[in-house]
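Figure 6 in text form: structure in, sequence out.
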């Protein structure tokens, strides 16, 4: 199956420093991938380079097998890739409903897989607070809203960067349940999260970045059976 999104020998960085040093990674339709690695190894930079927010300095980004390395970020997003960014990206002065409506657009082939009522059904908590302003929501509710906004674009691939960071345990569980539901709906997911056990319980494959290249890739069971690798590359 042709990957939705692929990095081939991808290199990028900031200023004089190189962060990614030739990353190969592919996400196929319906796959759930855990992008893992210790702090500062380049996970967020990889997401930003895949989406075009950080320019590639070498290698290629492919979307559906076609070179997209020079494509603008909004064009990549229109091909059905939605990112829930670290830090959430909710409009604080707009209501929950307005935040969702503003994000709405049809998916890559014109389909609307996630109309407002389906998003509201996934997040009853947001439905109850539909008139509240973004900045009146708790951190977990803002995270739900951010995921809801991403779903309003009917993505084929949802990228989640630190979606559970800073949330209380119950709220974390609610976010993991949501990611599971998104997955079951057939959407591919690329998940970056510090909660290693939760990520491994969810994904089909773990890809571990070490110093800007892919150091390990395989099924979560194989990683869990290898405490040496878990400790060396993930610090657990
Ligand atoms: N805007 C920026 N300008 C300069 N350097 C940056 C910038 N963003 C990240 N870096 C540096 O790039 C390296 C990789 O950071 P990145 O955020 O991609 O790592 P990460 O694996 O996502 O880690 P974390 O879990 O800490 O976010 C780090 O050394 C970081 O300091």
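Output sequence:
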């Amino acid at each position: 199956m042709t990957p939705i999104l692929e990095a081939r020998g991808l290199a990028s960085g900031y200023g004089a420093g190189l962060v990614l040093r030739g990353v190969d990674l592919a996400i196929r339709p319906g796959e759930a991938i855990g992008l893992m690695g210790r702090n500062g190894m380049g996970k967020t930079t990889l997401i930003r380079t895949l989406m075009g927010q950080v320019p590639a300095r070498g290698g290629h980004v492919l979307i559906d097998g076609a070179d997209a390395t020079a494509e603008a970020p909004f064009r990549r997003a229109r091909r059905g890739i939605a990112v829930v960014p670290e830090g959430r990206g909710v409009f604080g002065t707009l209501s929950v409903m307005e935040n969702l409506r503003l994000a709405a657009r049809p998916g890559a082939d014109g389909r609307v897989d996630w109309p407002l009522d389906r998003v509201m059904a996934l997040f009853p908590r947001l439905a109850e607070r539909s008139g509240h302003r973004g900045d009146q929501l708790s951190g977990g509710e803002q995270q739900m809203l951010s995921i809801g906004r991403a779903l309003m674009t009917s993505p084929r691939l949802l990228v989640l960067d630190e979606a559970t960071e800073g949330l209380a345990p119950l709220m974390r569980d609610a976010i993991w349940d949501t990611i599971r539901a998104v997955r079951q709906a057939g959407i591919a997911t690329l998940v970056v999260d510090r909660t290693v056990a939760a990520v491994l319980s969810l994904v089909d494959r773990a890809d571990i970045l070490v110093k800007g290249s892919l150091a390990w890739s395989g099924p979560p069971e194989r990683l869990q059976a290898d405490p040496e690798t878990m400790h060396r590359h993930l610090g657990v």
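Caption detail: The chain has one domain: 5-234.
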